[in-house]
Amino acid sequence: MDTPIPLADLPLFPLATVLYPGAPLQLRIFEPRYLDMVRECARTGGGFGVCLILDGYEVGEPAMPEAVGTVATITDFHTTEEGLLGIVARGGSRFRVERARAAGDGLLRGDVAQWPDEPKVTVPVEFALLQVILERLVETLGPHWRDAPQADYDDASWLGFRLAELLPLANPERQQLLELTDPVERLGQLRDILPRFQKP
């Protein structure tokens, strides 16, 4: 992998979910610390880091996050039916937290090493079945990228992240797939997982 890019003082948002590069994220924001975070992102044009919670909860005291997460960039704002601020964000590059600290308002901030994007690797022929499975999942679930071009399905990294996004995996499995840096290895692990979802 190429040399990680240092990024200082990234706001961190521990969540009970794993965000993959290219995946959408919808959140309702109501805690003051996260409202301030959204205002900061809107003002600076920067993103925030999404990390799976290792210990703790999404609200209240700062939770302990996983060390590897994904930068989220806000793409839209709206008001929910409950009158709360809703945001839509998109997963970007992954990162590893080098050092984290809680600010006075409870918002976690971290110095992180931002990972370069994975290289484009054509899906090896032995994983062609995964492309078919993703197409079927798209027909059933209709994700926002349902009209993606065939070139995306031929990209091992994109295919792996989209399958990991849509399959009903446990969060520790999702995290492990996020942390892999070889897109073909990720496809291999997904292929090994698939028999679990096949009907007897």
From TrEMBL:
Among Gene3D superfamilies, the record links this protein to: BPP1347 like domain, LON domain-like
Family annotation (InterPro entries): Lon_prtase_N, Lon_prtase_N_sf, PUA-like_sf
Judging by the UniProt lineage, the source's domain of life is Bacteria
Record domain Lon N-terminal: where: 7-198
The protein here is known as LON peptidase substrate-binding domain-containing protein
Question: What lineage does the source organism belong to?
Answer: Bacteria, Pseudomonadati, Pseudomonadota, Gammaproteobacteria, Lysobacterales
